[in-house]
Amino acid sequence: MELQLFVASSLTGGFPVQNPVIRRLTRRAVVTAAVFLTVALAGCQKVELERADGPKLVWDDLRGQWVLVNYWAEWCKPCLEEIPEFNELDKAPDITVLGINFDDVKGQALVDLGKRMGIEYTMLGQDPGPEFDWKLPVALPATFIVNPEGDLVEARFGPQTEADIRALIGG
């Protein structure tokens, strides 16, 4: 930080002096600018999520929709039961379903597994939870419900039905 120096020739004989009021104002301005810049740049960070196949998914592109982030595993019987429900929900224009494989299967193996299980909604190759400070679920199936403004509304455990989800989101 550079301090501004003023010359008060009539009082100091031309020697520079620091004006404490200007120094305080300058520090405040720098701190205020730094805070403003930090807040502004924080909003510019774009969260991109890896899909099992295809281009990355930009999280902000989902604003205006309900997002259901569903953790599943091949060995989880209730997970298998809710797949048709999530396939139907994903067809709605205001709902996006994202599947996360709990066993960390990735790439073509995940695409193949999803096809065998009848998953029609988008599967992610990475867990979005760490981006949003969500805890990894300890039970399956787990569904994180995000409102159109991008806020986590609820985390549900156990199989969900289309009726359960629609009752929560209002339609």
TrEMBL record:
Q: Where is the signal peptide?
A: none
- Write down the PROSITE patterns for this protein, in alphabetical order: THIOREDOXIN_2
Where the record annotates domain Thioredoxin, the positions are: 38-171
Q: Which InterPro entries match?
A: AhpC/TSA (IPR000866), Thioredoxin_domain (IPR013766), Thioredoxin_ResA/DsbE_sf (IPR050553)
What protein is this chain from? TlpA family protein disulfide reductase
